[in-house]
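Need residues for this backbone.
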């Protein structure tokens, strides 16, 4: 096996794959890549299965050394990068000779960048997944964010790999959105008419209290029509809960699996990757779609992700 040395880990860099869905009954949320589209595209660029483990960087990048060389790609938000001090672009396949040093800077747009390496990152699987669940310390590299001096094992890369680039048209169709489509939540009828209208007609701002567990929003107060209490129930990824203060929280990849706050809406599956690229102080809006429209958007997105002809330039 080859290896990757973490020289500078950045603000928050973890090992992530597509997560461990189906374990909510155990109280374990799926975790996984905050932007699964960027992860899948990066893996496609280096010849890996779409869900192979990679490094997820948040807000700032890091510095990494490839002692034996590597084939890699950077995808996701705009993180300027250099390989051996030469600028390189995202959304393309790159070859790093032995001893190469990759430096990834801070984001200029978006929140997360993915470093996908041919062969994938090798860490023990927990409940079938390599993803890091920070709150519980499950999975990833010792269940934590990476630190300076960590050495990760990589799989065997193909002897020859063509250089690929993701087509600009595909990137345009898959780019993160700031107007998020939502379907009605199970307690939507609990909210009075005015805050219900405010939810769809106003902008909300992502606060500093945003992480992989959830994104707390600031915006209009969303008051209930009557004082009611909810018995704790399952909370899906993308659910928009409203706290007693009337402020909303979008539950994210490390969300609690049960909760007692009413849910006014749920972000649709096709827009969940957009949540992973939201930064504090970003402004977002919500638009209502039907369940049929949500399903159609998901299918169209998946068809594009599986089309080599439409993806690669």
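Answer:
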């Amino acid at each position: 096996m080859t290896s990757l040395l973490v020289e500078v880990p950045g603000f928050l860099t973890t090992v992530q794959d597509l997560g461990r869905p189906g374990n909510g009954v155990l109280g374990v949320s799926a975790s996984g890549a905050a932007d699964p589209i960027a992860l899948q595209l990066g893996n496609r660029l280096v010849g890996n299965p779409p869900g192979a483990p990679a490094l997820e960087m948040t807000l700032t990048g890091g510095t990494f050394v490839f002692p034996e060389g590597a084939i890699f790609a950077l995808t996701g938000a705009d993180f300027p990068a250099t390989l051996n001090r030469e600028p390189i672009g995202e959304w393309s396949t790159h070859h790093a000779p032995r001893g190469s040093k990759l430096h990834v800077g801070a984001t200029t747009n978006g929140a997360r960048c993915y470093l996908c390496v041919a062969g994938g990152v090798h860490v023990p699987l927990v409940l079938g997944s390599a993803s890091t669940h920070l709150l519980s310390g499950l999975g990833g590299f010792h269940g934590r964010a990476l630190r300076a001096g960590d050495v990760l094992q990589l799989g065997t890369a193909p002897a020859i790999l063509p250089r690929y680039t993701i087509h600009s048209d595909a990137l345009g169709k898959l780019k993160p959105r700031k107007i998020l489509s939502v379907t009605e939540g199970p307690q939507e009828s609990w909210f009075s008419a005015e805050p219900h209208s405010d939810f769809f007609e106003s902008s909300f701002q992502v606060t500093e209290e945003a992480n992989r567990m959830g994104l707390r929003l600031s915006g209009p107060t969303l008051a209930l029509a009557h004082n009611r209490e909810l018995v704790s129930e399952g909370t899906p990824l993308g659910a928009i809960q409203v706290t007693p203060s009337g402020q909303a929280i979008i539950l994210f990849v490390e969300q609690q699996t049960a909760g007692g706050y009413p849910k006014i809406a749920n972000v649709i599956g096709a827009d969940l990757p957009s949540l992973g690229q939201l930064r504090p102080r970003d402004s977002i809006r919500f638009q209502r779609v039907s369940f049929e429209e949500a399903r159609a958007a998901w299918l169209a997105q998946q068809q594009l992700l599986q089309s080599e002809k439409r993806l690669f330039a």
